[in-house]
């Protein structure tokens, strides 16, 4: 039960919270269903989004990374332009806004000072806003025009896992309901696809021993690592890199696969781990090419891909899910790899040095 504040038999909250993700996705589907079993969202939120000419997604850390996936969802399913911004930058370096902006604040805690600073300004300007948060009654929730809850249960580990996937799932529901309201006919059923995502996550979290082996093989004694991908796979790479660096202290960068050759590839040495996220058909071959370039320079390469796209030597193959929702599943092995890298180093997985769960100073 996600509401049980104890760790139960788990050594760390992070592992428990990773494991809770399939159930959390199923709970989100339930919480956002009407009596007829249709996905539903407060009609005022839908009306406000429909009236807007651009969505601005604001967040920090992992929440900002979830926002990048949200951008793809709203742009592709709703045809509304989206900008994603780091809260601390937006607050003091605000871009030119469109005529009818709509703001989405992503915040697990609902208390991040950087995000709140933006919300204060948005309220002064009189624009509509929605906070998507895990904490009912939190500051960002109270001060925004609207709130949607994650319903993933309390997240205790500093490294965020189920909040990231929860934020993406809630945005997927939102994009789906909005598409309906817009009269845009989607060629897939969101509820069904999210259920498949939950099942696929379950397969991944059942693969722990294999993922621990890979983590030990590639991360022992290394000081830096890379995740690469393109498009949605790039966004997951950013989150995967953050997760690994924050709890293992291995300096890790998430990189756009095609950009690596424009400088950063000079950092690749014998044994540098380079992990590629490959779930998008149109860019798979290019990312494989980019990974091969690093392997030729000595990198220890790992492929995270999806059934139907795998090649013989690919180490991590997740069950097939809808390509737009792939980040919900490809991120899970990267969470577990980070967890085992931290565990292998005898670090306190749940309480990495210098970090706080919620940062309430700007
Ligand atoms: C802190 C946490 C991160 C989190 C970020 C944003 O830095 O350590 O895990 O992603 O704050 O937090 P929020 O609660 O706004 O999502």
UniProtKB/TrEMBL annotation:
<feature type="domain" description="SIS">
    <location>
        <begin position="214"/>
        <end position="352"/>
    </location>
</feature>
<keyword id="KW-0808">Transferase</keyword>
<keyword id="KW-0315">Glutamine amidotransferase</keyword>
<dbReference type="GO" id="GO:0005829">
    <property type="term" value="C:cytosol"/>
</dbReference>
<keyword id="KW-0963">Cytoplasm</keyword>
<dbReference type="GO" id="GO:0006002">
    <property type="term" value="P:fructose 6-phosphate metabolic process"/>
</dbReference>
<dbReference type="GO" id="GO:0006047">
    <property type="term" value="P:UDP-N-acetylglucosamine metabolic process"/>
</dbReference>
<protein>
    <recommendedName>
        <fullName>Glutamine--fructose-6-phosphate aminotransferase [isomerizing]</fullName>
        <ecNumber>2.6.1.16</ecNumber>
    </recommendedName>
</protein>
<dbReference type="GO" id="GO:0005975">
    <property type="term" value="P:carbohydrate metabolic process"/>
</dbReference>
<keyword id="KW-0032">Aminotransferase</keyword>
<feature type="domain" description="SIS">
    <location>
        <begin position="45"/>
        <end position="184"/>
    </location>
</feature>
<dbReference type="GO" id="GO:0004360">
    <property type="term" value="F:glutamine-fructose-6-phosphate transaminase (isomerizing) activity"/>
</dbReference>
<keyword id="KW-0677">Repeat</keyword>
<feature type="active site" description="For Fru-6P isomerization activity">
    <location>
        <position position="357"/>
    </location>
</feature>
<comment type="function">
    <text>Catalyzes the first step in hexosamine metabolism, converting fructose-6P into glucosamine-6P using glutamine as a nitrogen source.</text>
</comment>
<dbReference type="GO" id="GO:0097367">
    <property type="term" value="F:carbohydrate derivative binding"/>
</dbReference>
<comment type="subunit">
    <text>Homodimer.</text>
</comment>
<dbReference type="GO" id="GO:0006487">
    <property type="term" value="P:protein N-linked glycosylation"/>
</dbReference>
């Amino acid at each position: 039960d996600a509401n049980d504040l104890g760790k139960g038999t788990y050594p760390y909250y992070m592992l428990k919270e990773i494991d809770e993700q399939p159930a959390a996705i199923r709970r989100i589907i339930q919480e956002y269903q009407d009596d007829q079993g249709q996905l539903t969202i407060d009609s005022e939120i839908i009306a406000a989004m429909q009236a807007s000419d651009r969505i601005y997604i604001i967040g920090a850390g992992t929440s900002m990374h979830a926002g990048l996936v949200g951008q793809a969802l709203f742009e592709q399913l709703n045809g509304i332009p989206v900008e994603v911004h780091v809260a601390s930058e937006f607050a003091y370096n605000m871009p030119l806004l469109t005529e009818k902006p709509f703001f989405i604040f992503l915040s697990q805690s609902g208390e991040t000072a950087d995000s709140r600073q933006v919300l204060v300004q948005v309220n002064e300007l009189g624009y509509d806003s929605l906070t998507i948060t895990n904490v009912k009654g939190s500051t960002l929730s109270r001060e925004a025009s609207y709130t949607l809850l994650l319903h993933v249960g309390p997240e205790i580990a500093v490294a965020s896992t189920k909040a990231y996937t929860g934020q993406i799932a809630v945005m997927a529901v939102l994009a789906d309901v909005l598409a309906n309201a817009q009269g845009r006919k989607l060629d897939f059923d969101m509820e069904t696809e999210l259920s498949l995502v939950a099942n696929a996550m379950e397969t991944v979290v059942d693969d722990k021993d294999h993922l621990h082996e890979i983590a030990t093989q590639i991360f022992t004694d290394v000081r830096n690592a890379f995740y690469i991908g393109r498009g949605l796979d790039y966004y997951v790479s950013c989150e995967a890199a953050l997760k690994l660096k924050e709890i293992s202290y291995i300096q890790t960068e998430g990189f756009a696969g095609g950009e690596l050759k424009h400088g950063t590839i000079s950092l690749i040495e014998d044994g540098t781990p380079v992990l590629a996220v490959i779930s998008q058909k149109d860019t798979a071959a290019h990312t494989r090419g980019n990974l091969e370039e690093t392997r030729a320079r000595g990198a220890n390469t790992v492929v995270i891909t999806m059934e139907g796209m795998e090649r013989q030597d690919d180490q991590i193959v997740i069950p097939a899910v809808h390509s737009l929702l792939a980040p919900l599943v490809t991120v899970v092995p990267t969470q577990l790899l980070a967890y085992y890298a931290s565990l292998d180093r005898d670090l306190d997985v749940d309480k990495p040095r210098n970090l706080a769960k919620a940062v309430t100073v700007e």
